[in-house]
Design brief:
It is built from five helices and twelve strands. It is an alpha+beta fold. Keywords: Antiviral defense.
Length: about 230
């Protein structure tokens, strides 16, 4: 399994506040997807979207990304055809806030992973909103694993044995919920680190998570993870 990472360099046409960063990045990705009949259908389907993205870098301490400056962000996916489409169609695209300058592709090959850690908040939706208000930690951990397995099963059209340990330890890297704007609402999530178990299934799913994110709303910028090899 390979994860395709498209490193995107952009020029800002207007200031972008940190809380709107993911919204603005999602807009330009949505724009190119909707230009293709195939990917427009994919965009509209009520299924997991097998890609994710992070935020602008370098980070602005003022929390305002400045008009006239150049930043980078990355899009990852496990879908080679989607990666190819993004690489060929996102260059020179623009919105009222963002103009894409260049894209460079990096392929992340499978290696033994010690840990993955979310640099964008992990979102888990419940009927009553943010999970801490109505779920136990055990429920949160179960949902993290179940969500990733569902993505894997959908993408590979399979059903894997769920009787395995995904990680040995989970650490919350935030002291309070991390807000994230998604269209017209604000969702609450968490930044977490998972120390991945050594079994083959856990390692395979952790690698898969690098391309599809943890939790929900990956196509809106949630759950993007970085990693550390052992």
């Amino acid at each position: 399994m390979e994860v395709f990472e498209e490193k995107v360099k952009v020029y800002l046409l207007n200031d972008v506040r940190r809380e709107y960063m993911s919204v603005k990045i999602a807009q330009i990705i949505d724009k190119i997807l909707c230009k293709s009949e195939e990917f427009s259908k994919f965009h509209e389907e009520n299924k997991f979207k097998m890609y994710c993205f992070n935020g602008f870098y370098p980070i602005e301490k003022s929390e305002v990304y400045k008009k006239g400056k150049i930043y980078d962000f990355s899009i990852r996916t496990v879908d080679e055809s989607l990666a190819k489409f993004i690489k060929e169609n996102l260059v020179n695209e623009y919105t009222e806030c963002i103009k894409v300058l260049t894209i460079q592709e990096k392929i992340i090959h499978e290696r033994y992973i010690e840990k993955i850690y979310s640099i964008m908040p992990v979102i888990l939706k419940t009927t009553q909103g943010y999970w801490r208000k109505n779920l136990r930690l055990e429920d949160f951990e179960r949902l993290i694993k179940e969500n990733l397995i569902k993505k894997y099963n959908q993408y590979y059209n399979t059903k894997i044995d769920e009787n395995f340990s995904l990680y040995d330890n989970l650490i919350f890297n935030n002291n309070k919920p991390v807000p994230m704007k998604c269209k017209n609402i604000t969702l609450l999530g968490d930044k977490i680190t998972l120390f991945i178990s050594s079994n083959e299934t856990a390692q395979k799913l952790a690698h898969f998570a690098l391309g599809v994110a943890l939790g929900e709303n990956s196509a809106r910028g949630a759950g993007f993870c970085n990693y550390k090899w052992l």
